[in-house]
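3.2 Worked example (two chains)
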Amino acid sequence: MRVLVTGATGFIGQHVVRSLSGAGHRILGTSRSPVPMPGLTNLDLCEYRMGDPLPRTITEWVPEAVVHLAWEGIPDFSRQLCICNVDDQTRFFQLAVQLPSVRRVVAAGSCREYGAAIGRSSGSVEVVPDSDFGWAKASLHRILQAECAEAQVGLTWFRLFYVYGPGQRHRSLVPTILDQLASGDSLVVEHPDAAKDFVYVVDVADAVERAVHSTGVHDVIDLGIGRLQRVQEVLNAVSAGSDLAAQPVGERYRPPVDGLWANLDTARDILGWQPTTGLVEGIHLTRVAREGPRT
């Protein structure tokens, strides 16, 4: 299948491209600065900015599926930038789904669309976001849902929980802890009792690949590991085999914090997907990718 991947050189995009290529799909990626990426030598790149008219490179390539991962300005999730992303991505959706060759769109949403909900996610289409980023993603979902319905194009909207793995930006939790460990510093986090649903990026890429060739009728699918994992568990996984001790900041004890975790029913029933990489293994693989195997 011929797959157009926006944000192909980003954190998740690189892993999605590898998964799609490994499954035999042909890939055309978009990037604002199409510089060849190490390890992605089989990826054809097209310079494209969200919201601009589609270049001939895309229209003449005749994509059969679109995987939409692009988001401008990370890690800036301000209201102004969220509004710009909604406007630009809406124009892209309107153009992309009208291509006669396109049969399915797979797009990256966010668990932040669920707002202040706690416990096991409802997995429902209707949500009540409580942040600018959550609002932006939920708005894009509604817009894309309408565009796909009108064009009779299949849609998979993944609500991603806390994705980690090789290639993640340095200020994120796992890379920050690995940087501390590599520098010989004690591991320090501000909220070790905070709980999130961490999911390994290669598992996410596998789900995207399954969705690309899916013919099932579905829309919203949560992607997480399906349970809460405290930041302290991440620290323990990172420091496994190390004599460095985690040192919480501030109070010596913080009570457990409620959180939201993914509802994996639809991922399992529709895509036959479930996460296969546990936290300890995933962080080990991330560490090896950054530092190389230990001798």
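3.2.1 Second chain
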Amino acid sequence: MMPLTGIRVVELATVVAAPTASRMLCAYGAEVIKVETLIGDEMRRAGESEQVVCEDYRNPLFTVHNSNKTFTAIDLKKPEGMEAFLKLLAGADVFITNVRKASLARMELDYESVKDRFPRLVYAHFAGFGPKGPAANNPGFDSTAFWLRSGPIADWQVEGYHPFTPTYAFGDMATSSVLVSGILMALIGRASTGRGTFVTTSLFASGIWCNAVGVVETQPQFGRVLNPDPLRPADPLCNFYRCKDGRWIGVYDNEYKREREKFAKVYGLPELMADPRYADLETMRKEDAAPALVEKLNALFLTKTSDEWSEYLLKNNVACQTARRTREVGSDAQALENRYVEEVAFADGLKAILPCPPVHFSDYERRDYKPTGRIGEDTDGVFSALGYTPEEIAALRDKKAIR
């Protein structure tokens, strides 16, 4: 049993964010027909730049975002291709696309062109910067729209250092969940109204939402400027410290004034209670007292390894976590036991640990990973279901309308 069984999705989308939204729907029961161009989704070849194998039946990155979908390839510039695509839409509950709106309008696949023909269709459009405004037609990438425009890249940097580089498609993955939630709300609404609707979100919208606290607290009327000075954190008891083994650990209080005495005992720093400059965070900022405290804590944390600190701090009910590298996630017992990651076997003996859709239900299942195949893997089955004969399918291939 899966919660979205019976929902049919047609996807006309590339790369990560929009395809991952339909991948999430597919994981929980929806039938997803992915329509690619005859040369396929660019994500099929992403492994070339990310140094991960990307062959037809050995493509871990493409599989993360497209597992269990049904694959067909159609040339929408051919009349026969467009005719077939419209037949697919006629049987769909949801249409997901990240094709730019101007291109959709030229093909008469924009919402205004199809809403009356398919009144129950939930039409989900994904963009980089949103449908309006001066940047509406700009190319929208995870790095540009999610990270650079919404503040983190500029604000989270130590002055003078090169900006950090997030892993590929980080913002896309976060934004895909926003699109999924919109689609599900539209389907719930359709159950009572009988009508579909237009659902839209963007990388920029999601970036602003994820950075909501920063967007509010840095407004001029509040007077705060984010300045990630390692010696002047907003709260020295919520900070990163380097340990004896060279690894970093993050340590966190719940509320500085309430837990100051506890941390003074845990760290063996009686001056944390005795020195009036540490009475509260506002006084500490006014007196510029944080650097002296941070320097003491820097020296203290260098006396133990990260494992030793973690064991000691957790025993004293202090929230902490050693900074782990991404490559360690695949062997993390917590991730494995909760099925947040799982091993997937590909062709020719290749195995890889892949992240899983992150929602679990008590009474519903989730589809297991299925490695993706070649472009047009399921075209014959898709077109047969639409009523095309084998001869008609062969003729469409001869005309290069499908693959």
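3.3 Remarks
The mean pLDDT is 97.
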